[in-house]
């Protein structure tokens, strides 16, 4: 509190009245336990994207070998899972994948 002693009384009053960042109505800070619980669910739901957008069945996969895309029928297509948190994504055409800097899978 070296630099904020002037504001201590205001902070205490705001916290006690649950105003500002201490609100619990969705516009302030969320209770830490509630945040962690909902984040885990949201992370699990948004992390995996096994359902492609309509007409976009090419899987863009990030691996140790770079950014590779897999087409339906290729050897690793069925085993490849899209993890959007790693930058993986779906493509609608080879041209789109190539333009984004991805290379086709060898197999």
Topology of this protein?
Layout: H1 8-16, H2 32-47, E1 58-63, E2 66-70, E3 89-91, H3 94-99, E4 103-104
Parallel strand pairs: 2-4
Antiparallel strand pairs: 1-2, 1-3
What would you note in describing this structure?
With 107 residues, this protein is an alpha+beta fold. It is built from 3 helices and 4 strands, in the order H-H-E-E-E-H-E. It has helices spanning 8-16, 32-47, 94-99; strands at residues 58-63, 66-70, 89-91, 103-104.
Radius of gyration: 23 Å
Average pLDDT, rounded to a whole number, is 81
Q: Could you give a short account of the major beta sheet?
A: 4 strands, mixed
Taking pLDDT < 50 over at least 5 consecutive residues as the criterion, the unreliable ranges are 41-46
Separation of termini? 61 Å
Shape: elongated
Q: What is the beta-strand fraction?
A: 5-15%
Structurally, how many domains make up the residues? Answer: 2
The helicity comes to 25-40%
Q: Which structural class do the helices and strands define? A: alpha+beta
**Count of extended strands:** 4
N-to-C SSE string, H for helix and E for strand: HHEEEHE
Count the helices. How many?
3
Task: Trace the largest sheet across and list its strands.
Answer: 3-1-2-4
């Amino acid at each position: 509190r070296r630099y904020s002693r002037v504001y201590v009384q205001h902070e205490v009053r705001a916290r006690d009245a649950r105003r500002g960042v201490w609100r619990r109505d969705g516009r302030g800070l969320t209770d830490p336990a509630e945040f962690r619980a909902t984040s885990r669910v949201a992370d699990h739901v948004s992390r995996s994207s096994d359902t492609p957008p309509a007409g976009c069945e090419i899987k863009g996969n990030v691996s140790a070998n770079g950014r590779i895309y897999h087409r339906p029928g290729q050897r690793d297509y069925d085993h490849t899972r899209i993890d959007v948190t790693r930058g993986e994504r779906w493509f609608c055409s080879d041209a789109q994948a190539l333009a984004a800097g991805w290379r086709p899978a060898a197999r």
